[in-house]
Amino acid sequence: DTGVSQDPRHKITKRGQNVTFRCDPISEHNRLYWYRQTLGQGPEFLTYFQNEAQLEKSRLLSDRFSAERPKGSFSTLEIQRTEQGDSAMYLCASSPTGTGYHEQFFGPGTRLTVL
Amino acid sequence: DAKTTQPPSMDCAEGRAANLPCNHSTISGNEYVYWYRQIHSQGPQYIIHGLKNNETNEMASLIITEDRKSSTLILPHATLRDTAVYYCIGLHSTGGTSYGKLTFGQGTILTVHP
């Protein structure tokens, strides 16, 4: 257990439905990241928060995706109008602000299946 | 961030050293080499990182060549629990604009067998 939790761990939904995932980072960590991982591939960066500010978004994050971190603590990732191609593991990670040090602590992930 | 190249898979006998290579010939002077691993159905886990000098911690050792174009992660006494996908990542320091985002490749699937 890294101290990063994600909820739910598994989500099965029908195409066209909206889903929301939650990530609770380690409490003193300012930085929070979302990644997506499809079968057989390494995780791909989606977005990054420093406190409540979303500072970077990948081109992978289409208009159907939105992420928030309203109080600089937990974060949510919402997918609207899900498609089968959204089926993947969604990973959240957090890290402290520092210099030259990028140890990110990952949660267990939320596995999304879109039918 | 530097592109890294790793073999797709490797085997190792339990109790023996596992030596995982990584090529990063385009790495720049201020890019660190990071290693993460991902055990099945879990999130990635940080192992070790280095810039120029060799590094050792409780999990592994990292040997970086003098020209910094390649490195080797060494698990000195592999156990069955070390079976995982191992990722080598080149990453600028926090002072850059990357914000520390990790760019994972395909990694090396290490299988430790009895």
Would you mind describing this structure in some detail?
The complex is a heterodimer of chains A (115) and B (114). With 115 residues, chain A is an all-beta fold. Chain A is 0% helix and 49% strand. Chain A has strands at 5-7, 10-13, 19-24, 31-37, 44-50, 53-57, 65-68, 75-79, 88-95, 105-106, 110-114. In chain A, strands 2, 4, 5, 6, 9, 10 and 11 form a seven-stranded mixed β-sheet that branches. In chain A, β5 (44-50) and β6 form a beta hairpin. Chain B is 0% helix and 46% strand. Chain B contains no helices and nine strands. Chain B has strands at residues 9-13, 18-23, 31-38, 45-50, 55-56, 61-64, 70-75, 84-92, 108-113. The chains are: A mainly beta (115), B mainly beta (114). The interface between A and B is medium-sized, with 30 and 23 residues.
Main structural class of chain B? mainly beta
Q: Within the largest sheet of chain B, what's the order of strands?
A: 1-9-8-3-4
> What level of helicity do the residues of chain A show?
under 10%
| Average pLDDT number of chain B | 90
- List low-pLDDT spans of chain A: none
Quaternary structure classification? heterodimer
- Tell me which protein chains meet in the greatest interface and how many residues each side has: A-B, 30 and 23 residues
Beta strand % of chain B: over 45%
